[in-house]
Amino acid sequence: MIKTIILVCVFSFACNFVFAQNAEGKKHIEDVKATLSSSKADTNRVLLYGELCTAYQWNNTDSLNLYSEKGIALAQKLLFKKGEVRLLNNQAIALMFRGNIPKSLNILFNALDIAQKNTLPFETALCLNNIGACYSFLNDNFKALDFTSRARAIDENISHVPSDVYWKIYMEFWLGTVYSDLNKLDSASYFLQKAYNNAFEPGFTDLYSIRPTILMFYGKALFKKGNHEKALQYLHQSIETYDVYNDLIGTPDACSIIAGVFKKMNQPDSVIYYAKKGLEYRNFKKYYQKNSSTSNR
User: Fold this and answer.
1) Contact 218, 241 (CB under 8 A)
2) Which of 80, 120, 125, 296 makes an SS bond possible with 151, Cβ 3.0 to 4.6 Å?
3) pLDDT digit string, tens, across residues 80-126
4) Who contacts 165 (Cβ-Cβ below 8 Å, separation ≥6)?
């Protein structure tokens, strides 16, 4: 029974490894849309499309496709390569998290070529990181490490504007998780701690639930390292934060991980509790999606 519950949760997690929108993220979408409605057809409009695509890439494919296609068309018309590459990354991330790795890689290598030819260091780093993330999904961890570490080497020398700090944290987070998958746990802790520090800076606004996601994977890495007390602290904090965000995707994902941790600790009552909690959230998410509007556009 316990094994069955865990397998269901883990399967759901593998299909839905995403950063969902919290209340601040939803408000950000409305603010961007309001600005977009009165913006001129210039490079700033392309970047606004990119802001929407970053929000929608995790959970609304229809809106992502709508805004990314509009943004890419305008960027190409304006010869705005920076905007084009960013929007291509949004498209690729959405495909990656939905399992279409070949198409995602095709887009990313094309975007990388554009970024490198036009000497765009931040966009180059973003492409490299997402290529590494694709290989991580394919369990090719050495290729994943090659690309994500190259991305990090470029990105650490860039002065980020406030709107790009999210992506800096995202790259640190990915490199940390890749090291964790390779069981290089000191390196994993180093980069996950950097992601944690930057994500919990008072000036950073968490629009896409990256804080509890970092806590979730940092907790998993700490458990592998043998620090069970701190691992459970972070995993519980992850679940609590997802609950505050009313995150119907993140909570079951965190529950699946903590259930697996308790299974290894031979605590079946806790395994059953968190596995059931995760399934309840997953079922509520399906009910919510069925009974809500089919589009956020």
Assistant:
1) no
2) 125
3) 999 999 999 999 999 998 999 999 999 999 999 999 999 999 999 99
4) 198, 204
Under a CB-based contact definition with an 8 Å cutoff, are residues 54 and 34 in contact?
A: no
Helix (H, G, I), strand (E, B) or coil at 251: helix
Q: Which two tokens stand for residue 65?
A: 């496709």
| Maximum CA extent, the chain | 60
The answer to whether the CB of 131 falls within 8 A of the CB of 109 is yes
CA dihedral 296, 133, 198, 193 (to 10 degrees): 140
Name the nearest CA neighbour of 170 among 189, 190, 152: 152
CB 190 within 8 A of CB 177: no
Q: Select from 155, 171, 166 the least CA-distant residue to 115.
A: 155
Give dist(CA 97, CA 134) in Å, integer.
9
Q: How far apart are CA 196 and CA 237, in angstroms?
A: 13
**Average pLDDT, whole number, for the chain?**
88
pTM: 0.86
Q: What does the H/E/C string look like for 184-219?
A: CHHHHHHHHHHHHHHHCCCCCCCCCCHHHHHHHHHH
The C-alpha atoms of residue 238 and residue 243 are separated, in whole angstroms, by 9
Element of type H or E holding 237: helix 228-244
Phi-psi region of 192 (alpha: psi -120 to 50; beta: other; left: phi over 0): alpha
Q: If DSSP codes are grouped into helix, strand and coil, which group holds residue 182?
A: coil
CB 237 within 8 A of CB 231: no
CA distance 25 to 163: 13
* Mean pLDDT for the stretch of residues 143-154: 98
Distance CA 60, CA 39 (A): 23
Task: Name the amino acid, one letter, at 211.
Answer: R
d(CA 240, CA 119): 42
- What would you report as the CA-atom Rg of the chain, rounded to the nearest whole angstrom? 19
Residue 182, burial from CB neighbour count under 10 angstroms (0-12, 13-18, 19+): middle
